[in-house]
Amino acid sequence: MATYDFWQKSLAGENPPVHDSDAQPGYYRKRTGKAAGYIPVAIWEMDGRLTGVADLKVINPQEIWTYCCQHPITEQQYWDRVNTGKWHDESDAVTASIGHNGPPEVDTFKDQIEAALAGVYEYTEITTDETAAKAQSLRSRLLELSREADKKRAAEKEPHLEAGRAVDAAWQPLVKESKAGADTIAKALSAHETRKAQEAARQAKLAEEARRKALEAEQAKAPIGTTIEPEPAPAPVPAPVAAPIKGAYGRAASVKVVKLAIVKDQDAAYQALKSQPELAALIQKLAQKLVDAGFTVAGCEIEEQRKVS
User: Fold this and answer.
1) CA 148 to chain centre
2) What gap in Å lies between CA 172 and CA 63, rounded to an integer?
3) Burial label, 305 (beta-carbon count in 10 A; 0-12, 13-18, 19+)
4) Where is 167: in which H helix or E strand?
5) In a domain, 228, yes or no
6) How many domains does the chain have?
7) Does some domain include residue 217?
8) Each residue of 48-76: pLDDT tens digit?
9) What pTM was computed for the model?
10) Structural domain includes residue 57
């Protein structure tokens, strides 16, 4: 005589062994297809033999056993589904999205996804486990649709990617090699222009130093108590104009003056920059990286949260 032990243990969260062609009495649900919903299944013993129904249609329990044994439900959940057409833990939006079955084209997926997305607003805040179960059913459906749509996208795009890769294989080496050569020259030109500007600044500094020393020497020769008035300082020598570099071929190269920040005192730089949002975001990122690796970080508290994946 068959018993309900398997079903009861499964409902309790245990994992009793499953054997093919060894159906067990109880209430279950079975998925009707990869992109379809679940139907209710009931299996019981009658006149010494197992019988059952799936979606109220008589079936051979042995033929569907391996498809439903991992999905036990309570008797109440079974009858609720039979009477209302809705599962206790399934969002209405899931049912609506499954209702748009058809060829796997863009428009079909669009209809399915829009139907599923219509229910998301109901779960922007979750306060009960019952609602959490429904929300997860909708989340699973959306992830399923996302995966299937992405597969279709990749399959449709692949021939174009292959053609693009063939074009890149022919042309990209030429593009990169010629650009690398031009960049090598640009680096040398930049160094030359920088040296010119630095030399001009050095000459101006030497001229100012020579003028100061000449004034000091003249003051030393003057009678005591006499003050030598310095001649008006000459106008500063302007830095060389960053003029374009012209060659005999092609366009001229523009020369820009850029300023590079070279940190000499990291602590002082931190004090000057600590109010910048970018620095705060970087510190947060680095702290999280260390916490993920199992370390503690001075100045940080570690808060445990639950993240659904």
Assistant:
1) 19
2) 57
3) exposed
4) helix 129-221
5) no
6) 1
7) no
8) 899 999 999 989 999 999 999 999 999 99
9) 0.56
10) yes
